[in-house]
Amino acid sequence: MRIGISCYPSHGGSGVIGTELGKHLAERGHEVAFISYAAPLRLADLPPRVSFHEVEIEEYPLLKFFPYTLALASKMAEVARMKCLQILHVHYAIPFGAAALLARQITADLGLKVVTTLHGTDITLVGNNASFKPVTTLTIERSDAVTAVSQYLREETRRQFGIDRAIDVVYNFIDPDRHEREIPPCIPPCTCLEQVTLMHISNFRPVKRIRDVIRIFAKVASQMDARLILVGDGPEAPVAEETAAELDVLDRVTFVGVVDRVAPLLEAADLFLLPSATESFGLAALEAMASGVPVIASDVGGLPEVVEHGTSGYLAPVGDVDQMAKLAIELLSDWRRRKAFAHAAKERAATVFDHRKIVPQYEAIYERILSE
Q1: Which of 7, 262, 264, 294 could disulfide-pair with 91, CB 3.0 to 4.6 Å?
Q2: Is the pLDDT of residue 139 over 80?
């Protein structure tokens, strides 16, 4: 098949999954064309059967704000003709879904199909904004197929937009081969590492509750020798530094910034923290689990579909810093339980979320809509 993919070229979940999906599709023999305003973060090189097409952004005096959606639609139509695309698969309803519908109209003679994958904030935040809600609704209703990354997000989409059309749930995925960390054996009376490492990876937006990450860590650090590694960047990064200074743990916190590959960093982690206000899936948690790192997370959104409470990690109410810290300390203090959780996390990630199980689900959707 010949597939065009549009996603944000960033380190957010939708950009990561969109990029990895395209690369895996190419490995499986499909032709893939990426269309965006910049090369996706995880597309450092162009594998065989993969091309990248940049949407040009120009200045024009009469336009106060550049109409990116229109430029994107035009580029999609151009690439669709150039590459004889059969499908446009967009990751995020706004602006990619709306642009894809317009591109489909421009190239009506091609019979182009549109698949829209909903990732979360395009439904719960951006798309639900009064300025965008009608466009988001139209995008969902008029796409040839719509997928959501969790059961939670599918139901939330139906609830917020009053939509009863079919929405396929296709989970996010990982490549287990990139997470080959060996879980070290521990024999009594070994206490494992003298220092434990906690980690958090995100885009540092308010929804990630970065203050809670620091507060949880501070409570853990008061009970044992611990360090915190923060991976990523965003508007709440200064908040993290400020809170760490207030709680006198700044010297134990390392800010890594944005990285392309998180698996090598996760090899050093003993516990992953994700106390978000909401998560439609929790890709960072899944990547941690794939590396054999147990997760302490909020019991919200799609996270219970990823993290098994009491097996591969623990879930607690949003904002319950005391409970999350208590669970973290208990887990980090008990090497037998920590090792069991690490194995369970790694096994669940590989068993349920392997790309070799998930990508064929997208292929089946493509084949279905092309046959229609």
Answers
A1: 7
A2: yes
